[in-house]
Amino acid sequence: MIKIITILFTYFLSFNLTFAEEIKYKPWVYDNTKISEKCLNNLYPVASGDWYESYYDNYINKLDEHWGNPKFELFVNKIGNHLGKEIPIGDKYNSSWDEEMSLTRYLDECNSGDEFEYTLISELPLYFCNDFAPNVESDCLSIVLIKHYSKYRTRLFGMTIYGLYNLNDKLTILPLRNVK
Length: 180
Description:
Elements: H1 2-24, E1 29-30, E2 33-34, H2 45-59, H3 70-77, E3 93-94, E4 100-101, E5 105-106, H4 107-110, E6 118-123, H5 127-132, E7 139-149, E8 157-167, E9 170-178
Antiparallel strand pairs: 1-2, 3-4, 5-9, 6-7, 7-8, 8-9
């Protein structure tokens, strides 16, 4: 009897681990195109806290201490409110560490490779595009909630809502909200 229970337990455990591995990373797909992790790099604060500090310093107000400042944290959480207003769409600049910075990703420039280290949690109704990015005056084609995983020692995760827009006939990804 114990042998049967052990076999059943092992079977169910291996089935669950296999199933969990299959759904761990689920890519965002638009028009039969899987959107690569490269298009989302540094658009979410789990991996890019320094990037958001730089965006705030460059576009809003230079601060000595960012985290713990309510205005900065609201900026991070509601980044879409600033796109097309304080933050010009497509704008690029060099950070203090000499890296090119932009909150705009063009699908034709970034969508290469088969790296999908994120999970699509949900597709959202398109009307949220206007709610989450009121200053972006373009056609919203897709809006999704994505869960990201850090690649560092501590396995953190964060969730970001992204919008896919048609801006001047270019498919463009913008971060709209950082949820967690």
